Amino acid sequence: MSAGRDGRAERLREARIARGFETAAAAADAFGWNRNTYASNENGNAPFSYRKAKDYAGALGVRPEWLYDAVGAMRPAIEPGYVPVVGMVGANPEGVVLFALGQEPTDLAPIPPGGTEKAAALRVAGHSMRGVADDGALIYFEDQRTPPTPDMLGHVVVVETDTDEVLVKRLLRGSRTGLYDLESVAGPTRRDARLRWAAHITAIIPPFQARRIIRAGA
Which stretches make up the HTH cro/C1-type domain (predicted)? Predict the structure, then answer.
């Protein structure tokens, strides 16, 4: 079988089609992936790692365990009208998003006004983001995993760097094309970072209201 005995390539193609992309090239362009690399992963000519499966799964809205090993459901089981609280942010001056690695998000929050089922939420911990979001607030973003766009410049956004860090930073132009400066709410500015994706913040819910609407998991 050209796509390999594990079926990984077929699942990648299934996820891409389910996400609404008619061709591999269209998906690669939308998420900033190398066309040839993605096509080789999808047609089975080049196996991809679990780390890459996490990247693909996040962009295509499926579970990485399903994509890589056919374990469990294709998509996370999220109650209709709710989205996952995927991590905590602001626990230190760097504004790093802390994920529960290897675990499914258990806390849920209602989809915000104007949001979609691709929305996700971050919970603010500590006071390093004072002025943007206070301790206990919820920050929503659309989890689209697409490259930065010009309308994000000058705004506080959620980004992932090529060193696997997810951050909440003000996005600024770097010294040359493809590089970005990341300005902290509190702390030093990171210069000339390479980004995998960036997402606008779509809503910030104050701490009092956030405590009322979060549905805690088991």
Answer: 12-67
Strands 195-205 and 190-193: unpaired
Q: Among residues 81, 73, 62, which one has the least CA distance to residue 19?
A: 62
- If asked whether residues 95 and 201 sit together in one domain, one would say yes
What would the pLDDT profile of 121-145 be if each residue is shown by its tens digit?
Answer: 998 888 777 777 888 999 999 988 8
Pair (47, 153) in one structural domain? no
Q: How far apart are CA 23 and CA 91, in angstroms?
A: 40
Domain stop point among 69, 101, 118: 69
User: In this predicted model, what pLDDT tens digit does every residue of 168-177 receive, in sequence order?
Assistant: 889 999 999 9
Segments in the chain below pLDDT 50: 1-4, 100-103, 218
Domain end call among 19, 38, 69: 69
Three-class secondary structure of residue 41 per DSSP: helix
Alpha helices in 61-215 (DSSP H): 64-69, 207-213
